[in-house]
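Posting here for the record, re: magnesium ion.
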Amino acid sequence: MLVLGIETSCDETATAVLNISSPGSFKILSECVASQTDVHRAYGGVVPELASREHLTALPLLLEECLAQSQVPLEKIDLIGVTCGPGLKGCLLTGVEFAKGLSIASRVPTVGVNHIEGHVWAPRLIHPELEPPFLALIASGGHSEIQIVKGIGEYELIARTVDDAAGEAFDKSAALMDFPYPGGPALAQMADTFAGKPRFALPKVMREAKGLSFAGLKTAISLLVQREKQSGSFQSSKAEIASAVQNAIVDALLFKVGKALEASRLSTLVVTGGVSANAYLREKAMSLRVPHVLFPAKQHCMDNAAMIAYVAGIRFLICGECGSQKESLEIHPRWPIEHAGEQLV
Ligand SMILES: Nc1ncnc2c1ncn2[C@@H]1O[C@H](COP(=O)(O)OP(=O)(O)OP(=O)(O)O)[C@@H](O)[C@H]1O
Ligand SMILES: [Mg+2]
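Prediction output follows.
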């Protein structure tokens, strides 16, 4: 089955073509991503209206490029998978309406995919052996979640974002330290240049909170940066501060993951989403007391369409036409993963 994936939930436009025969047997034929970082940098964050317009311009070009790379003409596509939520309303609408147009014109069924469900299954793209049940830490720009994954469409929430998501915590800390948007990866890169234990003590957040909360971290970082600037030592201690911030965020996330592993006694942990690109998080997750720890490939940590095509394909294989929608396809800007299967009737 040849599946076209379309992803436009935030500030990356992505398309991909996958050939899927079964959950563990598939091939990525092509994948294309157009990032909008340069457009939004001047504003210090994603401007939703600009993001939608960028998707509109990029989508036809990316479709053409990814069909050409895969050497699959549109007429040969069997299924379209498109992100319906969660995400920015205008951005989701652009992708969904584009998919609907293609679907009607080429008489191909379409499956609406939950973006977070895409992130959960992204590691399968390089680990076809990954089988549920497993524990998933989803750490992305808009979400931090710990879920028990029992199968496609079967999730049990353990904890989720209360205030900032993990990626937001990285990006906002980076902004406090004067890194240009999006600062998370730059902060991480600088943190990795510091060897040893940072002198700075940041609060151990998330210990008591029920959900995944970074409350108190930003204030502490802001005060620390202010103090170092006033004493004139900010530039010389920047890598050390970055390391302390990275440690604090990773330590908080993995504290909760450790508790969830103990309680669930699951033997596989999946760490996914944009922040799973972080080398320190990967290293520390590997040292947890769990036999198997899996991550996505670097290109599948951030938003991509291969994970969307994959979930669409598997859903369609499991329930056939019942997993597809055409004109009735709707966007769901807020769409918890536990309800990912509900709109598929
Ligand atoms: N090496 C890294 N270290 C820390 N954070 C990183 C790293 N690389 C990327 N990130 C963060 O990952 C986030 C982007 O991830 P992703 O693309 O999955 O998020 P999103 O799609 O915007 O949000 P969501 O998936 O929740 O809708 C950004 O906040 C970015 O700073
Ligand atoms: Mg994402």
